[in-house]
Amino acid sequence: MRLALLAACLATPLAAQDTLSLDPPARRLAPENEAERLGAVTSASGGIVRVLDKIIGTVTDLELRTGETAEVGAISVTMGDCRYPTANPAGDAYALVSVRTRADDAAVFEGWLIASAPALSAVDHPRYDVWALRCLGV
Known about the structure:
With about 140 residues, the chain is an alpha+beta fold.
């Protein structure tokens, strides 16, 4: 009797696996031109980044043209590029920036800052926070 009960218990998961279907649901894809339109970005002549000195509590907004560098406290910030969504210019900003220490020119951060998601790619410095605000001319 116990052997029959054990066999029935062990066979139950096996039977359940035979009937399981893992077919993904059908997805409706956006037309290619719509996806291209939504993902299209336009380069601006520069951008505005904000620098927070976490020790003193001062905030400095830097208006930088592409290729321009500004110094704030112990760091220098260089604007590589600033792009915004073509379909919604005021909706977001993507700024390619380089943050370096002034004392030894060591790289603190090099990459894209996204205005709508500042924590996504944050500048990791013990004293300064840097984030993108918007592109120029938008």
